[in-house]
Specification:
The chain is α/β, with parallel strands linked by helices. It has helices at 37-46, 83-93, 112-122, 148-156, 162-166, 176-180, 183-188, 201-208, and strands at residues 11-15, 31-32, 35-36, 53-57, 71-74, 99-103, 127-132, 135-136, 140-144, 171-174, 214-219, 222-227, 238-240, 258-261. Helix 2 (83-93) packs antiparallel against helix 4. Residues 12-160 form the MobA-like NTP transferase domain.
Length: 262
C-alpha cells in the first residue's frame, strides 16, 4: 500500500451520472470481481489522495454502496457533457483541497500510482491532461479546484465539453513517455492500463479477462504471490501488511500491494 509514495494532498472526483447508452446498463452497478465498478473506482481513488472523494451523480440516481466517507453531489446540468459534473465536484472540495483527480466511473484498471503521477505533474498548471493512445483523457486528469467558477460560466453558456475549458486555462499535456518516466508507475502500470475504460459489454469482457493484479501475501511465516482484484477474492481475511483489522471484501487490490493474513 506504500509502494507509490503515499496519498497526495488532493481530492478525488468521480462523475457517475452518464447515460451508459452503449453499455445498456448503468456502469456504476457493473460487477467487477464481486464489487460494483463505482465502489472500486472510488476506493482506488481514495488510496491515491488524502482529501475527500466525491461522486457526482444524476439527480435521484441510485448508487451502490460506497466506501465510508464518500460524499455525493448532483450534476447540475445532466446531459450537457462531463464539464458540469467536474465543476460540481471541484466546487464541493474547493475549501479543502487545491487540486483534484477526476476519474470516470468506468476505469476498472485504475492504479493509485497513475493518479499520483498525474497529480505530481500538474505543478502550477490548472490542468494536467494525459494524452495517450491517440486521445486526450479529461476523465483521468488533475484539475485545480479554483477552476470551479470558470466551469460555472461555461456551463451557463451551454458549453459542457472539456475542450471549452482547456482553451481558457493553463494545461500541461502529458504524453505516454512523460507518464512512464516515473519509475514507480513504469513498474506498477507499465502499459498505462489505468486508462482502460469500458463503454460496451465487449470492452468490459476484455477488461475482465486481463491478468489479475499480483500482490504479496504474508501468511504462516512465508510470503507468496497471489492474484486478485479485491480482498474478498482471496477467500480469507486479510489486512494491509503492518496494519490492523481485516479489509472489507470490496477493498480494491492493485499490483504491488502487500497483505497479511489475519
Amino acid at each position: 500500500m506504500r509502494g507509490y509514495g503515499g496519498r497526495r494532498p488532493a481530492a478525488g472526483i468521480v462523475p457517475a451520472g452518464g447515460a451508459s447508452s452503449r453499455m445498456g446498463t448503468p456502469k456504476a452497478w457493473l460487477d467487477w470481481h464481486g464489487a460494483a465498478l463505482l465502489t472500486r473506482t472510488v476506493a482506488v481513488l481514495g488510496r491515491a489522495v488524502d482529501g475527500p472523494v466525491v461522486v457526482v451523480r444524476a439527480a435521484g440516481q441510485e448508487l451502490p454502496e460506497l466506501p465510508p466517507g464518500t460524499e455525493v453531489v448532483d450534476d447540475p446540468v445532466p446531459g450537457l457533457g462531463p464539464l458540469p459534473a467536474i465543476g460540481a465536484g471541484l466546487a464541493a472540495v474547493a475549501d479543502r483541497a487545491q487540486a483534484a483527480f477526476v476519474a470516470s466511473v468506468d476505469l476498472p484498471l485504475l492504479h493509485p500510482a497513475f493518479a499520483a503521477r498525474v497529480l505530481d505533474l500538474r505543478g502550477t498548471h490548472d490542468v494536467a491532461l494525459p494524452e495517450a493512445f491517440g486521445h486526450h483523457q479529461p476523465l483521468a486528469a488533475a484539475y485545480a479546484t479554483a477552476l470551479a467558477p470558470v466551469i460555472d460560466g461555461l456551463t451557463a453558456a451551454g458549453q459542457g465539453r472539456p475542450p471549452s475549458l482547456f482553451a481558457r486555462c493553463a494545461v500541461r499535456r502529458l504524453d505516454e513517455p512523460s507518464l512512464r518516466a516515473d519509475p514507480v508507475l513504469a513498474r506498477l502500470d507499465p502499459e498505462l492500463a489505468s486508462l482502460t475504460n469500458v463503454n460496451t459489454p465487449g470492452e468490459l469482457a476484455s477488461a475482465r479477462a486481463r491478468p489479475l493484479p499480483a500482490v504479496l501475501l504474508h501468511a504462516h511465516g512465508r510470503v507468496r504471490t497471489v492474484h486478485a482484484r479485491t480482498a474478498g477474492e482471496l477467500g480469507r481475511p486479510v489486512a494491509v501488511a503492518g496494519g490492523t483489522g481485516p479489509l472489507p471484501s470490496w477493498f480494491p487490490l492493485v499490483t504491488g500491494d502487500e497483505l497479511e493474513g489475519v
